[in-house]
Amino acid sequence: MKKTTQYILTAICLILVSCTNTLDEKPQGVVSSEDLNTPENAEKMVIAAYSALGNDYWATPYSNMWAYGSIRSGDAYKGGDGPGDVGDFNAYETFNLNRVDIGNADGTWFRLYLAIGRVNDALARVNNLTAAQLSTRLSRQAELRFLRGHFYFLLKILFKRVPYIDETIPKTEYDKISNVDLTDEQLWDKITADFRFAGDNLPVDQADKGRITKFAAKSYLAKALLYQAYVQDNQNNVTSINQAKLNEVVSLTDEVINSGKYSLSADYANNFLSRFENGPESVFAIQYSKDDGTPNGRTDNGHSLNYPMNVEYGCCGFHTPSQNLVNAFKTSSTGLPLFDSYNTINTAAGDDFKTNSFDPRLDHSVAIPGHPYKYKPTFIFQVSWTRAPQIYGRFMSLKETVLPDDPAFKKFPPFMSSAKNWDIIRYADVLLFKAEALIELGRFNDAVPIINSIRTRARNSTTLLKQADGSSTSNYKIETYQPGVNCTWTQAYAREALRYERRMEFAMEGYRFFDLVRWGIAADFLNAYFSIEKNRASHLRDAFFKKNRDEYLPIPLNQINFSKGLYKQNTGW
Amino acid sequence: MLIAALNSVAQTKTITGTVTDQQNNALEGVSVGVVESGRVSQTDAKGKFSIQAEAGQTLKFSYVGANPYSLKLGANAVISVQLDLTNSLNDVVVTGYQKERKKDLTGAVAVVNVKDIKDIPLGNPVKALQGRVPGVLISADGSPNGGASVRIRGIGTLGNNDPLYVIDGIPTKRGLQELNQNDIESIQVLKDASSATIYGSRAANGVIIVTTKRAKAGYSRIDFDASASLQFYTSKIKTLNAEERGRAYWQAAVNDRSNPNVNQIYQYDWNNNFDNPVLNRVIIPEFIDGAKTMRSADTDWYDEISQQSLLQSYNVSIANGNEKGNSLFSLSYYDSKGIIKETRDKKLTGRINSDYTLLNGKLRIGENFSGTYMKDVLIPTGDVTGLSQIVFSVVPIYTVTGGWGGPAAGMADRQNPLRLIEDNKQNYNNFWRVFGNAYAELQIIPKLFLKTSYAIDYNGNYARTLRKSYTSGFLSDPSNAVNTNSNYDGNRIWQNTLSYAIKKDKHQADFLIGQEQISTIYQGFSGSRQGLALENLDYAYLDAGSTTKDNSGNGTANSLLSYFAKANYSYNDRYLLSATIRRDGSSRFGKENQFGYFPAFSAGWRISEEKFIKEAVPVVSDLKLRYGWGKNGNQEIANNATYTLYSAIYGTNAVGNYDGGTAYDISGANTGQLPSGFALIQQGNNSLKWEETAQHNVGLDFALFNNELSGSVDYFIKKTSDILINPAYLAVIGEGGSRFANGASMQNKGIEFLLSWSKQVGKDWNITLTGNASSYSNKVTVLPPEILTSYPGNGTDKNILGRPVTSIFGYVADGIFKTAEDVNNHAIQPGKGIGRIRYKDLNGDGTIDALDRDYIGNTAPKWIYGFNTSISYKNFDLSFFLQGVQGSDVNNGYKYLTDFSSLAPGANFGSRTLDAFTPQNSGSDIPSLTLVDRNNEGRTSTYFLESGSYLKLRNIQLGYNLQPVLKNLKVQRARVFVQASNVFTLKSKSYTATDPENPGNAYPIPLITTLGINVSF
Question: Distance between CA B313 and CA B719 in Å, rounded?
Answer without folding.
Answer: 43
